[in-house]
Amino acid sequence: MNKTIKSFSSGRLLNELMETKTINDEGTLVKDYTFTKPSTAASIVARKSSNGWKMWKKKD
Q: Tell me: the pLDDT tens digits for 10-45?
């Protein structure tokens, strides 16, 4: 699958992760990858601009 995703700031990283088969077409990370910021990770998972500090919550 060679789709170009440009609709959000992490789109380039998502394309790279898909090309290197780090993330599959369903959006599941299949290889280890360390994100430098929670918002980048959230954007990749949501496939849109997201605030990682709000998206990642710990259950109390």
A: 888 988 999 999 998 888 899 999 999 999 998 888
Phi and psi at 24, nearest 5°, equal -90, 180
Residue with tokens 């605030």: 51
Helix (H) or strand (E) holding 60: none
Global confidence as pTM: 0.70
3-state SS class at 54: helix
Amino acid in position 56: W
CB burial of residue 14 (10 Å; 0-12, 13-18, 19+): buried
